[in-house]
Each structure stands twice: as structure tokens, then as C-alpha cells.
Amino acid sequence: MGRNRVLQLAIVQILTLVVYWLILAVSVQSVEPKLCGGKPLAGGGTLSRHISSRSTPPVGRQLLALVDGETSSYSILFGVLRDRGYTVTVRTPKDRSLTLWNEAGTHYLYDAVLLLAPSIKGFGRDGTANALLDFVDANRTLIMTASPNAGALFRSLAEGIGLELDEAGTVLLDHVRAAHRSGAGQATEGSRIFLVDPKPCPSLDLGATLPYWEKEMPQRPLLFANATGSLVAPKQDLLRPVLCAPATSYSYEDGQVVETDEDAAPFTIGTEAVLVAALHGRYGGRVLYIASTEALQDRLMSGEHGNRAYFEDLFTWALGERGILRITRAEHRHVPQGNERPRSTPYRVGDRLRFELCVEEWDGRQSQQRWRPWLGGNEPQLEWVMLDPYVRTSLRATKDQGCYATEFDTPSKHGLFKFRIEHFRDGYTPLLLSQVVPIRPYWHNEYPRMLVRAYPYYAALFSTMMIFWIMAYAVLWKGLVSSKRLGIQTTSRSPHATVSSKDAAASSTEDSDADHQKQE
Questions:
Q1: Are residue 310 and residue 359 in the same domain, yes or no?
Q2: Cis (ω within 30 of 0) for the bond into 380?
């Protein structure tokens, strides 16, 4: 009965092991990455689930311009936009039929809103600050321009994107770089119009401004008039200052004497005032803020100044013609070392892996309308993660345009790791990649034999064995020899011992007989 019970337990254990190995094999095969079409990439790599398979980016050509006044003042700006293939719809805020949604309320009618009327309190049927912020969250574009008489809607909108505006009636003044002056040291209306050198803000790196212009920032000075003093709110991680005011400017009421009292000090002084700011939302929407509405009017867009070239390039970024990225290829493979053979997933601990990534950028110009290799210069960063990053390295550019690669050794820890890329750069859409890869330990027949670094341990083992055999030989062999010698001596003395024993027995018999006779 007990034997049958043991046999049953053994059969159950064997079946449990078989089921376990089958589950493990199925799970490893299910982790092997595949594309949507079912074909794995070379080396077992795959595209991330975050990568869109769309052939064109989500950028439309319908633009709504809200103008409070003469529309002829922006003929150059509207002409540039129409030449680039945009359909510009010019409306006034007082038009009650104006709405951003279609009649069914299922989608937006416009892809971008150009707000050239900062003094309005509302527009159309549903024109509020929250409506415009929701518009941006829906992956749309908002271009807003400020003026000294900005209304409540504009100020609420500016606060929603992370801007702080000076009080109504104040204006940015610059007596040193003013475009017109009438007397020595006397402030005139010319102080409202000043020149600005097109260079990045002191707090902004030059490399971070690359996505905002096609090649490089225009070099001709810009002309701003009746600009509003504005600051980027603290702890703001999305809004980026693109152009700052001159160091000699300040925000104050024109014609008033600047007081030294802390409560009456200028709201902004020098380069802390922001003239142009850009925001790339978490859901893909973009916002472009310009501190002067008049900077886009014909009288400042024409002439020898660089307003037209500067804002034309900047509008292309805001409208989604540049800065939209996608991953076209992401793969990884094993790099054999020495006599190794190439392996596919699951990789082994200590393997050397190579990861390659190819990125393209959308060229939305009307003459192009295509994807091209991304040559932005910002090298993505790759992480090898299991809960925490074990490896963090930069992807270096390869000979193929728009492709980046790196090699690294997997750590001596097995489990489920993942390749992770979280590339966030100002002005660009984020690149997000996450892919799980299993790492297995060494199999029993893969461990190296006779390691060089283990020679001292091998020597200790063999020396211990040798000493054991020597001691065994010495103890056992000497004991055997001594016992043999003792046996020989005993055998040689045995006859005498026999005779003496017989004599002792006879004498004892005689003594016992004599005692018996005396008693009788």
C-alpha cells in the first residue's frame, strides 16, 4: 500500500513539472515581438505600440482669424498663409453665428485659430477661454497676440497657458532702442516702437530653438509696437520663451515717471519680459503667443525689418508643418562575441545587444508634404529597465540619415526587461517607445569550465585530495604492516606456551589429589 502511494506522488510531480515547462515555453513565445502584420523585425525587434501607422500627420488647413477692426491691416499675413495652402476664414467676434463646432457637435470646423482681437470679452455662441483651451487640448493650434488693452478673455487664456500679464494700460517701453525719438532723454510715442535683435532668450539654449525655424533664426532686427509686458509663470514646464525684450526695456504706463517704490516698480525689466513664447501641449496641441498685435500688421511686416521672415517661419511650426516626429524602425539584436552564434530572444545574461532607431520628421510645406529623416541633432536616450533603469545610454547617429544606434552589455540579472525611450524636447512631438524583452540565465551546459580566475580554488581542491590520500596511505599501510609483524612474533612463541600450560594443568591436578587424601 505504501509503495503504491509513493508511486502516485512521483507521477503527480512528473506531470506538474511537464505542465510547468509547457507554460514557460508558451509564455516565452508570446513575448516574442511581432508587427501588426505578424512579421517580426530582424533580431526580434518591433515597433512600439505608441508609434502611429498614419501616412500623414494630424495637421489640417482650415484656419479661423478673429479680427477686431480693419481686416486690411493684415493683408500680408493672410496672403502668406493662403500662399502656403491654408484656407483663412476671417470673422469678427461680434458675429453670433460663429462657432468652433459643426452643427452636430462631433468635430471642430477649424484646425487653427488666429486671435488678433485681444480686447474682446467673447466671440460667437460658445467663444470662451475654456473653449479655446479645450480646442488646444484636441490637438489644434492657437496663435494669440496681445495689446495694452487686453480683455478678460485674453487674460484668462494667458493664465491658462502659464503667462502673467501686466495691468491694463501699461506698455513695454524702450528709450534706447526706440525706432523714433524727438529729444534727448525725452520719452515720446516712439518709445512704444523699439527694435529687437532676433536671438534666443538668456535662459534658452540655442539648440532648443531649432524646431521653431526651418534652418536658422533670421538675423535682421525685428520691430515691436505697443507690446504688453508678460512673464512666464513659475513652475511652468510646457511654455517656453522664444524671444525676450531688450535689456533696456521696461513695462510701465507711457508718459509716467518711474517711481522707485517697490509697490510701483515696473512689472518687467529688461530681458525678463517675454515677446514670443511657444507651448507644445501634452496632447499635441500648440500655442504661439506674441506680445504685440501690431507686429503682424502690414506697416511692420513690410519694409527692411525681419518681421515677415521671422513670423513666417514661426507660423510654420505653430501650424504643424515642422516638429512632428514618428519612429519608422526600432529593432534590436544580439552581437556575437568571439565564437558565439547569433541568438534571438530570449537573450542571455551578459549578452551584448545592439539597438537601432530611425526617426522621421514631417515636412508640411505645400511643395513637399512628405516625411523626411529627422536631423534635429538631439540624440535620443535609451533605457534598459526592470522596475529601475539598469542601463541608460545615448543613441549615436549612424551613417544612415535619421537613424541612431547603440550597443551595451546586459547585466548579470535575468528576468523581464524592456527597452524604453521617452524623448521630450522643446518644440517636438514626444517619442515614446516601450518593448518587453525576456533575459534568461545560463543553461546547465553553457557555463564555462576551468575558469582561469578559479585556479587557486582548483589547486586547493586537488591539494586537499592529495593530502587525504597520503594520510590515508600512511595511516592504513603502517597499521597493516605493524599488525602483520605482531602476528609473526605470536606464532613463533606458541609451542613453549602450550607445554607450559600442560605442566601447569598437571601440577594443579596433583595438588588437588594431595589435598583430598589429607582430608580422608
A1: no
A2: no
Please, what is the average pLDDT of the chain?
Answer: 78
Dump pLDDT digits (tens) for 378-437. 678 999 999 889 999 999 989 888 899 999 999 989 999 999 999 888 888 888 999 999
Is residue 7 assigned to a domain?
A: no
Pair 312, 413 in one domain: no
Same domain, 406 and 277: no
- Same domain, residue pair 140 and 48: no
Evaluate whether 318 touches 286 at the Cβ level (below 8 Å): yes
Query: How many independent structural domains does the chain possess?
Result: 3
Picking from 92, 139, 421, the residue whose alpha carbon sits closest to that of residue 280 is 139
For residue 88, being part of any structural domain is answered with yes
On whether the pTM is more than 0.90, the answer is: no
Beta-sheet pairing, 171-173 with 141-145? unpaired
Give the CATH number for residue 337.
Answer: 2.60.40.1930
Q: Is residue 184 part of a domain?
A: yes
Asked if 304 and 339 sit in the same domain, the reply is no
Please check whether residues 300 and 377 belong to one and the same domain: no
Question: What is the phi/psi pair of residue 264, to 5°?
Answer: -105, 15
Residue 183 belongs to domain with CATH number: 3.40.50.880
d(CA 29, CA 8): 32
Backbone angles phi, psi at 52, to 5 degrees: -85, 145
Helix axis angle, 152-161 to 129-137, nearest 10°: 30
Task: Label the pairing between strands 62-67 and 87-91.
Answer: parallel
Are residues 424 and 337 both part of a single domain?
yes
Can you tell me the distance from the alpha carbon of 232 to that of 215, in angstroms, rounded to the nearest whole number?
26
> Over the stretch 218-260, which tens digit does the pLDDT of each residue have?
788 999 999 999 999 887 788 889 899 999 888 888 766 666 5
Residues in the chain: 520
Please check whether residue 503 lies inside any domain of the structure: no
C-beta atoms surrounding 76 within 10 Å = 18
Strand 415-423 to 431-440 pairing: antiparallel
3-state class percentages of the chain: helix first, strand second, coil last, to nearest 5: 30, 25, 40
Q: Is the pLDDT of residue 191 over 60?
A: yes
Name the H helices within 32-170: 75-83, 129-137, 152-161
Same domain, 85 and 230: yes
Place of cell 536671438: 199
Q: Is 5 exposed, middle or buried (0-12, 13-18, 19+ CB in 10 A)?
A: exposed
Count the neighbouring beta carbons within 10 Å of the beta carbon of residue 331: 20
Question: CA 329 → CA 281, 346, 361, distances in Å?
Answer: 25, 20, 13
Per the structure, the complete domain to which residue 376 belongs is given by 32-53+324-440
User: How far are the Cα atoms of 44, 81, 342 from residue 86, in angstroms, in the given order?
Assistant: 43, 6, 52
Q: How many CA atoms lie within 13 A of 437 on its CB side?
A: 31
